[in-house]
Design goal:
Helix content: 25-40%
Structural class: alpha+beta
Number of helices: 6
CATH topology: tt1808, chain A
Strand content: 15-25%
CATH architecture: Alpha-Beta Complex
Oligomer: single chain
Order of helices and strands: EEHEEHEEEEHEHEEEHH
Distance between the termini: 60 Å
Radius of gyration: 18 Å
């Protein structure tokens, strides 16, 4: 079993030539519950999220939730549920946890479930949010594609850049101007909303955010300010 670690930072750790069953065993160990793992055909990446990663992830999740509440959009959310799919060989398979995930069109399909099992026909999140702090999630796109995730938001925490991506029929992701799940949103609008919370506590930002939704999105949807 070959092992490769990145020496510049203690995390993430990348292990190669790992059987899918070993990944599943490691993923299911209770002591590893706070670790994030990405598995793709024998390669396993393990990382411990930092606050610099966790804060924008939480803020984006809060933003989506507030927008849905203000606009009366039904949804279900998930943040650390592992989505995985075995392959047809010992070192084949995919698996990952979203930083944040949301169900919209498929929300009714997971309602009341104790667990979500993509391998048994449960849907992946309609919207998968990935926050990049140290590295890039670009190389993880094949994992999302294999799992069948229709829409991915990639947020670069350090540069404060955001992309919306849509899964095409060819299995690759392409940039889109408007969200599939929340068509009233563009990357620029999400960044504008996030900027309202810069250097303020979350409670203050949430109040600003609700007002922003009513002022910015409400008029276009015929909602009172």
């Amino acid at each position: 079993m070959a092992t490769k670690t990145r020496t510049s930072l203690p995390e993430p750790m990348v292990l190669t030539d790992i059987p899918y069953d070993v990944y599943v065993a490691l993923r299911d160990v209770f002591a590893n519950r706070h670790k994030r793992m990405t598995y793709y055909d024998g390669t396993l990446e393990i990382m411990s999220p930092e606050y610099a990663h966790e804060k924008p992830s939480r803020r984006i999740a809060c933003l989506v939730s507030v927008i849905c509440e203000e606009l009366n959009i039904e949804y279900e959310g998930t943040s650390s549920t592992t989505m995985r799919l075995p392959g047809d060989a010992p070192r084949k398979g995919k698996g990952k946890e979203p930083d944040q995930g949301f169900y919209f069109a498929n929300a009714h399909r997971i309602l009341g479930k104790a667990s979500i099992k993509v391998a048994e026909g449960d849907p992946p999140p309609d919207l998968w949010i990935e926050v990049d702090n140290r590295g890039s999630s670009k190389g993880r796109l094949p994992v999302y594609s294999a799992l069948g995730v229709p829409e991915v938001w990639q947020y670069r925490a350090r540069s404060r850049r955001l992309r919306f991506l849509s899964l095409g029929e060819d299995g690759t992701y392409q940039p889109i101007d408007h969200s599939l799940s929340l068509p009233m949103l563009t990357p620029a609008l999400v960044l504008e909303a996030l900027a309202l919370g810069r250097d303020v506590l979350e409670g203050t930002w949430t109040k600003r955010l609700r007002a922003w939704v009513r002022e910015t999105l409400g008029p276009h949807l015929g909602l009172p300010r």
